[in-house]
Amino acid sequence: ETGVTQTPRHLVMGMTNKKSLKCEQHLGHNAMYWYKQSAKKPLELMFVYNFKEQTENNSVPSRFSPECPNSSHLFLHLHTLQPEDSALYLCASSQDPPGSGFSYNEQFFGPGTRLTVL
Amino acid sequence: AQSVTQLGSHVSVSEGALVLLRCNYSSSVPPYLFWYVQYPNQGLQLLLKYTTGATLVKGINGFEAEFKKSETSFHLTKPSAHMSDAAEYFCAVSEFDNMLTFGGGTRLMVKP
After folding, report:
1. Least C-beta-crowded within 10 Å: which of A48, A73, A112, B102?
2. What element of type H or E holds A37?
3. CA distance B9 to chain A (A)
4. Count of beta carbons in the 10 Å neighbourhood of residue A65
5. How far apart are CA A67 and CA A74, in angstroms?
6. How confident is the model at residue B68 (pLDDT cuts 50, 70, 90)?
7. CB burial class (10 A; 0-12, 13-18, 19+) of residue B40?
8. Share in percent of chain B as helix, strand, coil (round to 5)
9. Cβ–Cβ < 8 Å for B81, B89
């Protein structure tokens, strides 16, 4: 595998289900990101992780719970979602995170998970 | 604070015609500028980037962009559109050691 991979590519879930999205980066990067992309809305940054530590949470509802066990893996745990949470969820990584003193934050993206909440 | 404006949420061109996608940015310090492309149900792929040096930047698939500081612009061009260029294009800006900020995107349609 190369680059940034995401699984599953498609997910349909009910509002009472619990599911998880997985992201893995094979680039040796130190920072990872979750974005939400809805139809007719700009890209929304959800979370930023730097060396496994969460450095940014953009007022995301608690029904989204991120986990970063190491600098290569990032999860997004989902529970009791709403239909308006249906979107494409994109994972990205960058060599260095913002605030590290090195970064101009070029990000590499995975293919996304298309989530549908019924 | 940095920001990006992409003029035109939809642009339609004929195959073989010039592609011009507009991007203007706001930044208090010298910016780093990026163009990404997104094909349907795919992630974002980096087309090209400007960090320092030459202001005319060449990217993949025949695209190029020119950084014009006086106009705070970073427009994306391609001399001759191909059907495979139909996609959504995002301009993005970052200041050193700061987060990447994306524009709202421009959907490019190519007519046969």
Report:
1. A73
2. strand A31-37
3. 10
4. 15
5. 6
6. very high
7. exposed
8. 10, 55, 35
9. no
| CA distances from residue A83 to A39, A45, A103, A118 in whole angstroms, order as listed | 13, 19, 36, 6
pLDDT confidence of residue A103: 67
Helix (H, G, I), strand (E, B) or coil at A85: helix
A14-45 pLDDT, tens digit each: 988 899 999 999 999 999 999 999 987 788 99
pLDDT at B87 over 90: yes
Contact by Cβ (8 Å): A4, A93? yes
Q: Which residues of B touch A45 (CB under 8 A)?
A: 99
Dihedral of the alpha carbons of A45, B32, B98, A53, in degrees to the nearest 10: 60
Report the distance separating Cα B51 and Cα B31, nearest Å: 7
DSSP reduced 3-state for B109: strand
Question: Does residue B30 register a pLDDT over 90?
Answer: no
**What is the dihedral sign for C-alpha B5, B98, A38, A31?**
positive
Query: Cβ(B110)–Cβ(B88) under 8 Å?
Result: no
Residues with Cβ within 8 Å of B27's Cβ and at least 6 positions away in sequence, in order, are B2, B72, B93, B95
Average pLDDT, chain A: 90
CA distance A62 to chain B (A): 23
Please judge whether B32 and A114 are an interchain contact, meaning their C-beta atoms are less than 8 angstroms apart.
Answer: no
Average pLDDT over residues A90-107: 83
Structure tokens at A94: 């960058």
